[in-house]
Write a structure and sequence with these properties.
With about 200 residues, the chain is mainly beta. Helix content is about 0%, strand content about 45%. It has two domains: about 100 residues, Immunoglobulin-like, CATH 2.60.40; about 80 residues, no CATH class. It contains no helices and 14 strands. A hairpin with a 6-residue loop joins strand 7 and strand 8. About 5% of the residues have low confidence. It holds the Pfam family Ig_3.
Length: about 200
């Protein structure tokens, strides 16, 4: 005589955000930023993205692009940054009907372009960021190269760090006037990410 007992366990866990963008996301107008969130949950959650004003976002194929993984445990929001209202605190929200809803805020800050130029040298430095006015130090100057330091940028916090530093030098500086066209072919441009 055998007795068979079937036991069924239905496990459920509320959503917990396990991963998202680290720190502050910095961007300049015209740039795309991608925000993401991952969660553990049983059953898999339904995701919602909230704008900096708190309203729900939807894919519009122009400004906002939302993707969710096949297993529904991760999601991403791609935003085309174009105006001041695009910056602020976004949030991903995961809800599976079990326990509390999980909410993860992600801050996106604007990095405006800062132009700095010298009256004595034919160069200009453009910084995508909100750093203080750069104080340049030229070292190891030679006819074909030099080292340029920006000592007052050392130790800047994340909100002040430039996203990109562009150093432009005129090949021939004898005829540079105030109305000089920096987009001309006589300008050599070097792009450097911050920290290089």
């Amino acid at each position: 005589l055998y007795i068979i007992i079937w036991l069924f366990f239905h496990l459920s866990d509320p959503p917990v955000i396990t991963k998202s963008n680290e720190g502050i996301v910095r961007a300049v107008n015209g740039q795309e930023v991608t925000l993401f969130c991952e969660a553990s949950a049983v059953p898999p959650p339904t995701w919602t993205w909230l704008s900096s004003s708190g309203s729900e976002l939807f894919t519009d194929e122009t400004k906002y692009f939302i993707n969710t993984s096949i297993n529904q445990l991760s999601t991403s929001l791609r935003v085309v940054m174009s105006e001041i209202q695009d910056y602020g605190r976004y949030a991903c929200k995961a809800d599976n009907g079990v326990g509390e809803t999980a909410l993860q805020p992600i801050d996106v800050v604007q990095i405006p372009m800062l132009l700095s130029s010298s009256q004595t040298c034919a160069y200009q430095l453009l910084c995508a960021g909100q750093p203080p006015k750069p104080e340049l130090m030229f070292e190891n100057q030679h006819p074909n190269y030099a080292s340029i330091l920006i000592p007052n940028y050392a130790g800047l916090d994340a909100k002040e760090q430039p996203l990109l530093v562009v150093f432009e030098v005129v090949k021939e500086s004898n005829f540079v006037e105030n109305d000089f066209n920096w987009d001309s072919s006589d300008v050599v441009q070097t792009d450097m990410t911050f920290g290089q």
